[in-house]
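Lab meeting minutes (informal)
Scribe: AK
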Amino acid sequence: MTFDRRTFLRSGMALGLGSWAWAWSGRNMGQSLASNTNQKWALLLAAGQGNGANGDRRGLMGCTTDRQLLGEVLTGRYGFDQAKIAGLDPQGITLSALEILFDEHLRQQVQKGDPVVVAFSGYGSYNPPAAMTPNPTWEQALPHLGLFLDGEGEDNFLPLTTLINWLQSLKTKQVYLVLDCGFSTGVEEFEGNLRGRSGGRGGPIPPEVNPSNPPTKASLGNITLISATSPGQTAVEVQLGKQSAGLFTLALTQSLWENSSTSVMASLWDHSRNLLVPRLGTEQIPQWRSPNNSPDFLAPTTLTTGGEGMVTGLISGNSLQSQIVALAPLVQKRALVHSCYLTFPATETGSDLNSTDNSLWQVQSVKGQSATLTAITKTSSTKAESATSSTEANGGESKKEMLVGSALREIYRAIPKNLALTVALAHDLERIERVDATSAFGAIAAVETVINAGEGSADCVFGRLEAHRYSLFTEGGNPLQPLTKSESSGAVKTVIGALDPCLNRLLALKWLTLLANGNSTQLGAGIKLVQQTSGDNPLPRLIYQWRSTRYPYPPQDNNPGNGGNGIPNAPPSFLPAVATNQALQCELENFSNETLYGCLIGVNNRGLSVAAILRPDLKLLQGKEQLTWPSPEDPLWIIGGDKAIAHWFLILSRFPLAGTATALGQQITGNNSIDPPSLESHPPRVLPLKNLLPVVLALVQDLTAHGVTVAPVPDDMILLSTADWLSLPIMYQVI
């Protein structure tokens, strides 16, 4: 028996069957990928064709952007030769074109040991037989990648098993498959204000699969699968100004730009969690499956110069062209222009931000993913300055040429002095309901803009719960505030009038997200959350840990295999789980010699605004102090209530937070007098807040009181030094 190329590629014969385990391993396989003797190859596929303007699925807008984002980070950060990156766009992607391109670009050229990255953005389809388990694993599921959604022809869909077969036919074992598509069986064009990437139950079921004969488990073999979601779940894309992109691809490229080692999984989960959970809860849970359970990706071409982007070219005068993409969409939209960045040469070794070889540049304009920066003159107003003068930065053409390829790291963030919400009106509202809602939201101070869902990014969605009942939803369509039947019924304006507490809480979280800088802060601090377990052999369990990576003088990590106090590290988790009725413990550490002020604030799993105030004056950590709260003998932080998600922020500052402390005293007691009770009367514990927004606004005032003047900014903005504050989002799910 003989096979031609097409028969071999489509037959699935190279796909091994069996099972493979998923367990933690610390083996670092990434170093083998750094070899200069191997060529790096990529195949980037942008699909997303819909089934016409009148169909239930229109064409996706963000797949081409995904391809661009991945191509830029692979060439700029991982040293891929542009000639070895091939791809297809939505207008040209067909099964036959893909087969030919795969064969010519990869199968005929890839050699043993060559790293290969294949990425697909578009619609996914999932048509499980009736006998399929409700929550199948990748080894059980047989989803399809939708090239076109117009009709059920076999050439419109690529079975994932066929693509895996192709990849396993390559001579190399270093294969990474990235999928940014959904596999929900439902068909919804929008998830709230976000466009869904699930094509429903499209695609043919293989002949050997039927309800009485479930599919055989398929092995991924040597392939590392990095997927935006799991079988049966959705995936979404978000609008970024005039562009759209997959939320998961955004998170992936952010982590690849910032990461300075081969181990990517933990960074990817941090970025994905911050983008996905506030919008979708647990409806989109990314997946990472790899041989030997390695958390590694390729080795960056320079291991110590991760950042928010890189210099891509020179412009006449004192200007640079750059890509700055490792920022949250909100920061990119509201706090990128006028912010300042340090350049780090590609050959830099070490993370000392005080190097005099690094020059300081200010963002002047942004177009798409490209930013223009100009050199600024060094002043002496803050601790964080480490820039050369503009004369030094532009002292010669040879020195300017060396800046191309340099990493860019955020050093000063320009934040607006005022911020408000954008509300999207759901598609299911009638015209008169939209008119009434627009009028009602226009009278609320926390709201600045009302749009129709799908017209742009939004902070929340207003829509129907059911006939004549309304509610506020996350941007991804999850209910935000449980309303009683009487509160959610009646006229639109009446219901919106009851949403003030929820809108204020949303605005507070928006401010904290705008300030979030866990990847760029220069404060020397760390935090661990540990759960005390019960039973015959109770052991502490590490829930979450973070340590600043850009503090100029990082401490020696004497326990690389543990989370501290002998607590074993768990594999990186997308959304840490916390058991109800158990005690949480917070371990804080200050690496520096300076006092750090702060607290924990946010929204707990009951949907209540809360604060963990450990010191009455918010003088949280003395220099070199380690603080454990509460003590193991005093379990004050007991997790109870709903099985839902808690969203906290750790706030730290080099400066006293007097206004924040005053606002906390007011909101805890409900006393809004000029001289409210101080926090002295409250022992260290988690306390409910009447309104989170006044506390966060006071925090913003405390931070902006120490703004810097290293570069000009408009009157309605202010520059903050990343050496002065930390806003760190922390999320966990109560189960």
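Next up, CB showed the second protein from the same session:
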Amino acid sequence: MKKFLRFCSWFFLSLFFVGCNQAGAGPITWIDIPSQDITLPLAPFSIVAHASDNDGIEGIEFHINGELEKSLAPRFEGSERLGWAEGEFSPLMYGIYRIDVKAIDGSGVSGPADTVIVTIAQAEAPATPIEIPGGDVEGEQATPIEIPGEDIEGEEVVKEPMDPIAVANRNANCREGPGTEYNIDGALLLNKEGDIVGRLADNSWFLITLPDGSKNCWISAITVDTQGEIDRVGIVSAPPPPALPLVAEESPPVDTETPGIFGSATSKTSMCASDTINANVVAYDAGGIKKIYASWRITDSNGSELQSGYVEYHPIPSVNNGYTAELGSFSYPGTLQINGTVEDNAGNKAYFNNSITIDCS
């Protein structure tokens, strides 16, 4: 948002003062993309900048860490006093990069540079929230461990079957039913044991008794290692899953906020009746702009209306949230009054106006 407001300020400085730059001061330059202090991955990214000067824009230079990266011929929207350029930079390594952009006017004079700092860093993998670290983590089902007996020479060894147990291989949630949709009813901590008293047919979940004997609950097979003969344990039907809470549907909030107008200007402050002018405005609304339009009228020195009309504004492709309309030519001299309206998609409206003198006497 700070970058956006900064850009709007530069844009309107160029509209209002593009004809008033001090001779020899050099072009005014501003960087639209990337934003100040942004963090980007190690990949090519675009640099977009604008420049304004009364003597016209001859070239725009991109510098990276003090070294000239590109020198580009500007593109223009209408007058050659407002130009822009776009280049691509491919960082070779992670680190902090200083981007300086400055422009050269038609007289060969360089203006002050605009600067942004960009950090190139490796994106961190998003952490997956869990209720207990290791609880219900996806993975392979543990393989039952076979406990070998010892053969005693001369005697036949009778091996007593071992009661099946579950040994936690991580801190694990123990739930009211076999699935993550059931509520947590306890926990089996790392290396703790619980007797297996039931299971699902596919052995994906076990019903165990917690070590303190306080309750039985269900634990995922991937969070435990088993010992003993699991097939001796009976298959238990899963209890009904808990009912999902009813969530009342909320109506979306009604958009009553008017669009933001960050300035309006015309390409001339005075003109002949046979001339044409461009009327410009920068406006933004989070819900989107539906249309921008204006009614205009020419009055004489007594305030009598001589001529009137209507015009719609259209987006400026190279300027974020910028809109323009062309007016003229006209049939009479006098004062041209432009009364504009910005309407968003919710029907909220904001207003602006401009005034131009029509007189070539």
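CB comment: The two ends are 46 Å apart (CA to CA).
No objections, moving on.
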